[in-house]
Structures are given as C-alpha cells and as structure tokens.
Amino acid sequence: MNFNSWWYMGLAIISLGILIFIYSKKRKSSFLLLFLVMVEFAFLIETVIYIFGGSYQYFPKIIKYNSYYDSNVGALVSNLLIVPALATLIGVFKLNWLWISFFTAFLTFTEWLFLRLNIYEHNWWKTGYTTFGLLFVFFPLGKVIYRQISKPLKGIKHSIFLFLCTAPILGCMHIIPIMWLSNRAYFLGWFKDYAHDTTAFASLYHVVVAIIFTILIKINWRHRGLKYLVMASITFVTTLILTKIGILKSYVWWDPWYYIFYHVIVLTMSGAISKRLSRGSSGRSI
User: Fold this and answer.
1) Which residue ranges traverse the bilayer (predicted)?
2) pTM more than 0.90
3) Element holding 185 (H helix, E strand)
C-alpha cells in the first residue's frame, strides 16, 4: 500500500469507527436506515457533479489497471463512508450547529489537505462548494431524515424512503464487482474511457432497478415467490437486450447469474426494510 492509499484507508477506518460507535450507543436499526438514505443522497449528488459533471478526481492508487475506477474508490470512501457516517452521527444524536460546523470544518480541512498532498484534484469544483453543501444542506438533512424514519411511514413517503434505503445497496453491489473483478462493462460512447461509461450507466441503472424494487414490494402479491420470478425475469431480459444491442459486454461466465442472484437477495432485504419503515423506531433490528 502506497502513500496515497494510506490516507484514504485512514478515512475509511474513521468512518467505520463512527458507525461502530453509533451502533454501540443506539442499538436500533433506524441508524442504519438513516445511513443508507444519506449514502443514496450522496450517490445522487455525485452522479450529477462527479460522474456526469467531472467536478474532481481522486488518486488513492488502489486499483492499478484503470485510473477512473481508482478514482471511484476515492469517491466511495467519501460518499459511501465518511460523509454519510458523519451525517448519521449528527442525525442520530441530534447534534447542534456547533457540531455540524465542527464536522464541516473537519471535512473542509481534509479536502484542502488532500489537494495539497496531490491525492485529490479539482477540475471546476471549489472547496467552498463542499463547505456550503455540508453545512447548510447535507448535515442538517441528516437530522430531518432521522426524525422522519423514526415514525411509522405510509403511502408515498414510505415509498420514497424505501427507494432511498434500497438504492445504495443495489448501486454498491452493481459497480464494486465491476471495478475489482472486471466482470462486465457498458459501452455507450458517452465518455472516452469505457470505465467512465460503465460507471455512468451503472449510476442510472441502479436508480431504475430501485424504483422497480419499490413497486414490486408495494404490490400485494398473492404468492410471495411471484415477485422474485418477475424480478429475475426483468433482469434476465434486460441483460439479453443490452448484450444484443452492444451496450453490455460480459467477460466471465458468472456475470449474468450474479446480477440475477443479488437482485433476488436485495429484494428480500428490501421487503424487510419496508416492514421496518412501516413500524417506525420501535424495531431494534432489520
């Protein structure tokens, strides 16, 4: 592990430490649901500014064979770990503006330091944008979201939060194997680098699948197994179509089956999350 990698690893360890601390103090699944929601908000923001907007680039030097996938690792440390973990800490413990300002200053300083160490680079982004977004939007949002998911949810609000909790699981299970195992790639011609193309398509794909999951969960099925059959069929047909028109290329035999398998697994998890959201904060585990 080189110099760059240690800094990103340090942030990851801090993030995990924060989540373990929250769990040790608040043994309720609501903190995990809040974390998932904040991860998805971070993913949606990054889809716009980082993937399609080209705002900045990370250099963790962990994935050697492709610089864009390597940059994605840095993005995951930020948007899957440290930023949502701090937002979860703020929301669960209802921390005031002093704490919000402190954590904003910490991440602002971290960004400044990473820039000086040349392990992170701005294109058109400014550190001030990060400060403003965290201080006035993202961190306060954590407190608002936690109040919402602590109550029993129904109707459209239940559907929205079910989507926000399910989408990040789908997104991670979709792109992480691609980055590390090169099991598939998407070719659309949107960007020069196939890895950028793949990341962009995957970022949209997981949103569409999460919407489908939400619809399937909300339907009252007479036979529970039917929704799994429908989801597996949709995944299988989508894979065939994308392959046929030349967008998808699979490089290992298990690739199509993995996406069917994990969709079925996450659909089960989504059902459990749905029940938990309906109960409110009374549940201790998902």
Assistant:
1) 6-24, 31-53, 73-90, 97-115, 127-146, 158-180, 200-221, 228-251, 257-274
2) yes
3) strand 184-186
